[in-house]
């Protein structure tokens, strides 16, 4: 079905009405607030594109990673008109850019707008109440701010009213989520008493009729995409399918990742890697930090043969221990890099740390950059990369990245490039894997719109535990992935809490880049680097091992969630508001999330011996005690033994595996299917080679799990004929 | 002399050289970094305009308050070429705006860029050292930030190398003062050690050759003005004369201003005003806060006849007590205002506090707005206004002012309007006084470029004592005025320190808008409003009275400094670096300042029983003890009795007056001329009616004070023939 031919035109009449209305309400004579007829086009079922003015060339859709996942969208038919009336959107252009006004309802919650780790419902005023707030879609390395700046400023939001809006721009757009008053409307009156405090003077005032204002600098036009629900989850699914569908990890990508000390060479790394194996700590991915390069900050992309005299031999030995390798880099290219002169004409006209900024929006820039990365990494079988420092410092007195005024050979300016740099860098570094037909599962510090198909997980330099969990809760709204990686901890309790949380994320990363020994040996950074281990490190190792094993038991279940992310657009990890849109009590819950379809996780935080957990309507089971709990209520949860509060939904099947230490290409998970409640829904396990892209062309099996009373069955269909990855070894009533 | 005809053209050759150089250094092929030939025009002696691209229409020079003060500039002849070579300025335009690169030297300090109260030398990195920083020229209500955002984001800076640069833009420009590395240049290498701390990774790196980058959104061209020195002070003077020359206050404007409780009506106000007179507290100006209006937030501009039943009678009684009246307002116009419907078509298309935002860039908007203000204020003889809330909240999650996307009938957008709103508002409210030929001395919370001729003093809602003093030190660089007004204090010590500082500012304001009684009655806000006075209030009153009297003794001296500000452009209050440009020790001194030509003030701060005071080379005299101190050294100052550390420069004449309680049109100051040192320079007192604009057309006397050993003389010349304002009653060797 080709939607691009289905053009619906809203012309003359509607814009005349808008102009008349505008004139009538405001008494303003015409002065540049030209509202040309918006063109409305049905892009896919339930997705409309509305074009205002003359959009810019370099937008997220121009650089999309994957085509629209039309098959998935065809499975979500939608009849009717856009949930946001195009005629009620007011477009206005000026020399400085353009803006959009969209209608909002009085008690409408807004989610998304990137991967904020500080904010949740974006319609909540910073001073309390649903009076709206200003959200800045700027990429930042400091996402723990109340401005909405994040590691992935995606101009998509989903409303509690069950629709989504995507503004196709790579500009640093600003959203005012209900806190503006266009002339002609009225805000609630403050009354008329003389105030004698600034708090009273400047308090935000909630409005009966609200307006969303989107301010887009520089652009003289913009495409707006409206996504139908009818539920918020369906609007999100449509957006993710519009992005191309969610990324499917290789099976090993769901295992544990350990990142070693930045100053270690080959010998120290191999010794530590062997130690983890000796202690049976589950670990699939080993991360090597900057030390592997001959020059860093900026990067040479050449091995440091002083510390890694034999890169091939080193990688072979790591692979022999069944580690997948994830190598750190950033894009800024140092003068000593062999590609420096070659990539110079395909770089921006400002340096970062004395390094060139490759223009990944040009084929030449990508090609030259990859030639060296192929030689250093991909041709040697490195399975993944960590793409660091690709963000920006928008409100910093000391920004270290390239200025907004930078010009790139592609024609992008510094602002657009900063928005897209992470996406373009990910796309570039994905090419070698795509050529080889392999999956990867990397790390990246910046992303933006339409990023769902990119197999990279966002991480941060910031470290607030609540913000980290909030990132997990928020990631689903925009088709993003986030790891609340564990670095250090202020106490053993904090350490366990952080490990517990990261085990229920898209990438279970323990990042020891600045400590010689693993954190379970010694949490104190100074002592760790003096090799002074904690007296109780053996106990800590045991406890941590159990937590890593818990992660491994969930891998087949989580793999299903990711496959559904790909095919149906449903985020594997998501806020409760997406699953219970009609329950007002979940509208502000930013510290619980669904992990797949059956499990609700409620991480705990250090210093809080118990926490409230709201369980939506329906029956639930405590994961640890199997106690049945009636939902629609708030309970108090505790956690004495590394047992993160987990609740399993009644009427589900929960496949859990025997934990393995690492996942080889022929690893077969032994799975027990837990029957939760009396009438469980069927569950589908997705089985394939877990490594290549063959799943996408159908070389995948769907194992349908079914339970009806004492009758249990599993049925496998599909064209995957390689070694079995999943074996149903038993069934258990939960 | 008409400088506008002196056009010097830099064409073909220079731009070809720039492009060749660019190509050679960076290897970048052409992609939009078009550097069209800049047009260089000599505007006045030592002032050049360089035009790049197609500048915008709505810039500071488009809305200038006063014509260029050519007479003053003709007195500063300058031969030779611009101190910044136009051929070394790199202009670049893109869809998002344009940018300029200007050459900088390695150890160049940068001052100005508006009225920051947090920063001083703008080339100092936030992480230490002269590595440059990012400065945002955005108007803000929270100037105590490290981003350079201020109450007066003026795109003018002066360099320690003795030149000034003004970028004629009302956009939110960003300055990177030496922390960028254009491709083709090299920053100092970090060396090549693997770092394991973020501090080390992200440290700023000072460069041998530095570049100033000015980033201007939206504009496709810009005029840059270069101001010759050869000293920084002369560059500043040229900028102030280019602005039209500094504002001359009415004599009463230099007296003390007291602002009363916002909830007081006429009776309470009159009673308190009488009490100040009874206690002989010097006070010239009485400020009435929002309570005078029938509706506030937003404003009706109509008297509240419940609390002020007889506005004319009230004003008459205040005038009878010899108070000058300063009435509070902001511009946002409430629906109950009589002008609401009339001004609607001449307002922006977003409301603020439910009020219209008048478009002061249209004659109609100004006219309608003034009609009501004339009726309420100016026709009733109100001498001044306080223009509140005309700033912005650029990085706030809860901005209360109009959005940047606002459209105004004049064609200004919200960004340009926010930059200029304070200036346009001041200009509008100045018109009635200009029509009457009267001077005024008001308060305003936002200003921008070319503001020197505007008789309004900036103030803030913020309150850090060190920032307040830094504002005093910084104001001179941009031809701005600032009052570190006293509101409350955390202790009596803090109160004295703040009073001491504000007495040496452009407006000696004590602002009691949220306390019923003056702060000298009770510093604790709660107790003050319960009328519980401090046990030692009589002592405090005595001490405060002395400090207010100290202010009054300086008025003739300060009046000279303001007149010279007008005629020569020399700021009356200024940083030491302007008077001692060759002394590297003053480059970072942001807590001492020159108060006129003879007096160095070094305010103290609560909790610090002594402070270091650096005195530049030459001899100095302690103002209080008359002890002689040899300069070029740092001394320790103390302050036990409200005696702010003051030092008088050797070889000067310091006229000090007998303090009066208030300044009537016929008040004559009795002046003792202090002869400081053995060979004092002459001093000129400016005498005129102190009220009208007649001084500008020559109705002013210059009283030349001269001392040579025991011979003292004063000679008055000029065309002022009104009542004598200054009487030399004695001479004293200091």
Offer a quick outline of the entry.
The structure is a homodimer of 734-residue chains. Chain A is α+β, with helices and mostly antiparallel strands. Chain A is built from 15 helices and 34 strands.
Structural notes for this entry:
Two copies of one chain form a homodimer. Chain A folds into four domains: 225 residues, glycosyl hydrolase (family 31) (Immunoglobulin-like), CATH 2.60.40; 300 residues, Glycosidases (TIM Barrel, Alpha-Beta Barrel); 83 residues, Sandwich (Immunoglobulin-like); 81 residues, Golgi alpha-mannosidase II (Immunoglobulin-like, Sandwich). In chain A, 22% of the residues lie in helices and 23% in strands. Chain A is built from 15 helices and 34 strands. In chain A, strand 32 and strand 33 form a beta hairpin. The radius of gyration of chain A is 26 Å and the shape is globular. Chain A starts with 6 loop residues before the first strand and ends with a strand. The N terminus of chain A is likely disordered. At the A-B interface, strand 7, strand 11 and strand 16 of A face strand 7, strand 11 and strand 12 of B.
């Amino acid at each position: 079905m080709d939607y691009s031919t289905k053009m619906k035109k809203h012309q003359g009449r509607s814009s005349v009405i808008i102009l008349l209305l505008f004139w009538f309400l405001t008494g303003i004579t015409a002065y540049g607030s030209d509202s040309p007829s918006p063109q409305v086009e049905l892009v896919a079922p339930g997705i409309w594109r509305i074009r205002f003015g003359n959009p810019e060339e370099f937008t997220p859709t121009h650089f999309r990673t994957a085509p629209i996942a039309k098959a998935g969208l065809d499975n979500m038919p939608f009849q009717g008109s856009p949930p946001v009336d195009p005629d009620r959107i007011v477009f206005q252009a000026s020399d400085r850019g353009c803006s959009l006004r969209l209608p909002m309802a009085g008690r409408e919650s807004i989610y998304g707008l990137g991967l904020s780790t500080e904010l949740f419902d974006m319609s909540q005023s910073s001073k309390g109440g649903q009076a709206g707030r200003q959200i800045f879609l700027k990429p930042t390395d400091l996402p723990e701010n109340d401005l909405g700046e994040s590691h992935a400023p995606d101009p998509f939001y989903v409303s509690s009213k069950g629709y989504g809006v995507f503004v196709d721009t790579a500009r640093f757009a600003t959203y005012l989520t209900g806190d503006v008053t266009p002339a002609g409307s009225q805000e609630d009156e403050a009354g008329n008493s003389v105030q004698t405090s600034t708090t009273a003077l400047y308090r935000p005032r909630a409005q009966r009729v609200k307006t969303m204002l989107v301010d887009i600098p520089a652009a003289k036009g913009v495409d707006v995409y409206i996504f139908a629900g009818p539920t918020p989850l369906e609007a999100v699914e449509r957006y993710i399918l519009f992005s191309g569908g969610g990324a499917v990890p290789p099976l090993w990508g769901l295992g544990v990742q350990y990142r070693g000390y930045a100053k270690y060479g080959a010998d120290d790394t191999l010794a530590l890697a062997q130690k983890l194996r000796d202690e049976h700590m589950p670990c699939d991915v080993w991360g090597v930090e900057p030390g592997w390069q001959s020059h860093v900050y900026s990067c040479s992309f050449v091995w440091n043969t002083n510390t890694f005299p034999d890169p091939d031999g080193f990688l072979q030995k790591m692979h022999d221990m069944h580690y997948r390798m994830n190598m750190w880099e950033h894009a800024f290219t140092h003068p000593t890099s062999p590609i420096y002169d070659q990539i110079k004409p395909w770089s921006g006209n400002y340096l970062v740390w004395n390094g060139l900024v490759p223009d990944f929006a040009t084929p030449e820039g990508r090609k030259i950059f990859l030639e060296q990365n192929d030689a250093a990494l991909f041709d040697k079988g490195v399975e993944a990369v960590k793409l660091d420092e690709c963000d920006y410092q928008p409100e910093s007195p000391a920004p270290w990245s390239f200025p907004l005024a930078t010009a790139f050979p592609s024609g992008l300016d510094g602002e657009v490039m900063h928005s897209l740099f992470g996406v373009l860098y990910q796309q570039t570094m994905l090419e070698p894997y795509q050529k080889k037909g392999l999956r990867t599962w990397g790390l990246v510090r910046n992303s933006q719109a339409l990023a769902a198909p990119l197999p990279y997980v966002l991480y941060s330099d910031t470290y607030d535990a609540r913000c980290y969990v909030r990132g997990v809760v928020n990631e689903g709204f925009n088709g993003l992935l986030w790891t609340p990686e564990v670095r250090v901890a202020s106490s053993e309790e904090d350490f366990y809490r952080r490990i517990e949380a990261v085990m229920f994320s898209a990438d279970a990363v323990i990042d020891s880049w600045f400590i010689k020994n693993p954190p379970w040996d010694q949490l104190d950074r100074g002592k760790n680097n003096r090799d002074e281990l904690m007296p109780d490190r053996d106990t800590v190792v045991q406890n941590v091992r159990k937590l890593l094993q818990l992660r491994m038991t969930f891998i087949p279940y989580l793999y299903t969630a990711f496959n559904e992310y790909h095919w149906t657009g449903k985020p594997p990890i998501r806020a409760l508001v997406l699953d219970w849109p009609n329950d007002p009590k979940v509208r502000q819950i930013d510290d619980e999330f669904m992990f797949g379809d059956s499990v609700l996780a409620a991480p705990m935080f250090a210093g809080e011996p118990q926490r409230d957990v709201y369980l939506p309507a329906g029956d639930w089971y405590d994961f640890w005690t199997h106690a049945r709990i009636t939902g629609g209520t708030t309970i108090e949860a505790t956690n004495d033994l590394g047992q993160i509060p987990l609740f399993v939904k009644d009427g589900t099947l929960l496949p859990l595996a025997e934990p393995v230490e690492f996942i080889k290409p022929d690893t077969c998970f032994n799975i027990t299917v837990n029957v939760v409640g009396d009438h469980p829904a069927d569950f589908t396990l997705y089985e394939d080679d877990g490594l290549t892209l063959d799943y996408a062309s159908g070389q995948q099996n769907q194992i349908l799990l079914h339970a009806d009373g004492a009758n249990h069955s599993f049925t496998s269909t599909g064209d995957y004929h390689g070694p079995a990855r999943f074996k149903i070894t038993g069934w258990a009533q939960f």
